[in-house]
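User: I'm new to structure prediction. If I give you an amino acid sequence, what do you actually give back? Let's try with this one:
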Amino acid sequence: MIKKHKTRPDAASGRQAGKSLTSLQPIDTTSFRKPASVLFIWLSILVVWLLSLLPWRLWAPAPDLLLLVIAFWSLNEPSRINMPVAFVFGLLMDVHDSGLLGSQALAYTLTVYGTLVLHRRLQRFNALVQALHLLPVFVLAQFASRLVTGWLVGEWVGWDWLWSALFTTALWPLVDILLHLPQRRLDDTDAGAG
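Assistant: Good question. You get back a string of structure tokens that encode the predicted 3D arrangement of the chain. For your 194 residues, that looks like this:
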């Protein structure tokens, strides 16, 4: 008969046994970025919406600044700017352009849907990489809108709209800098006061 010796667990191994990857806690649980002011979000959208009412948008390759700002805020503040907001502003642009009711609304809603789907991934990247990820979103949303419009009108509208999607994507880093500027200024002010 083999006798088992009772062994006392080593103190060091006992400490390590209690620690596992699931018991790890972050050092700081506060968010790294302060949320943007609701007033600033809506003010930026309304200013760009008013700029979008000017006749410069009649130029086919003109970037869609309203779509760009709505996509930016839906990426950075998805609880405040979401698909219903994009749909309403898309309808407003459809009425303004006297176009097919719902075509811009479809493009705006699909763009916001794309940014919400890619939300977690895009938050990890800088503005240039975000723009590369959003290029297919802008192109596919505009393509779906133009496809439905072409089908209902009975003729293809051409490929001039592709330039608009490319210019809209190219402006993403600039919009990222401009719309994050007030938050960065507040962070700098807080750091100087501390």
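You can read the tokens as a compact description of the fold. Here is one thing that stands out. The radius of gyration is 25 Å.
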